[in-house]
Amino acid sequence: KELVDYIDWNPFFQTWQLRGKYPNRNFPKIFKDENVGKEAKRVHGDALKMIDDIIKNKTLECRMIVGLYPANSDGDDIIVYTDEERKEEQCRYHTLRQQALKDDREDPYMAMSDFVAPKGSGIKDYVAMFAVSAGFGVEEAVKKYQNDHDDYKSIMLKAVADRFAEAAAERVHEIIRKDLWGYAKEEKMSVEDMLRVKYQGIRPAPGYPSQPDHTEKLTMWKHMNVEKDTGIQLSESLAMMPAASVSAICFANPKSKYFAVGKVCKDQIEDYASRKGMKNEAVEKWLAADLAYDRA
Predict the structure, then answer these.
(1) 288: exposed, middle or buried (C-beta count within 10 Å: 0-12, 13-18, 19+)?
(2) Residue 231 confidence class, pLDDT cut points 50, 70, 90
């Protein structure tokens, strides 16, 4: 129930292929669009009814795990320590650096490790991580709808579960900023501004543009005992199961921002594979879409 206020409705309408035209592109202005407004209002109303039903009957269960860890960077790696003494490494998260030539010579070539204070800097930095899911119960409910030949409600439930998962991620990140890590204790922000990413810090996820390598989830899952403590699993392709799940690594650096690694050259792939203890071919397979060269 607490998560309803944190829902970003814009992707929900995209699920139904409802796209308003400027200036009525986004929620709630989409209801005023002359072409899709009426239908948008109808499916939104149906979603609200389903949400009430989910809360009343406890159809879905939301699970989450979150942690804050002492950390420093070592080149393009992020070291997570076992404790505040920072003498023993618990694990390393490996990042990729932008390589594609930039027009602006002053524009830095970024990696996520840049947002963590370097080892030896004397700065005790941290990273936070979380995994959340609102998908527990979806499969059972969908089967019921399918048995009733109700495809509409089946699609609606999956769309609503996805919105709950993203809302949970938004809420957990807020808790990290204001309470767990507490680097933004005085933050007073509307949900609308949160959805516009007006807060300090970022929360990229493995497999997304800032770190396109899904295998980093394996480190996260082992490090945080995600599957054991939440039941959120990883498929062979490293997709999260249930599907309505979100994971992320959180940075507090005021200069941190989202970026796309872009195409990666062979020299970096070889270095990255060495750091991860993987074969070059295995890394190339996972990063096939991001290679700046043809695989042998």
Answers:
(1) exposed
(2) very high
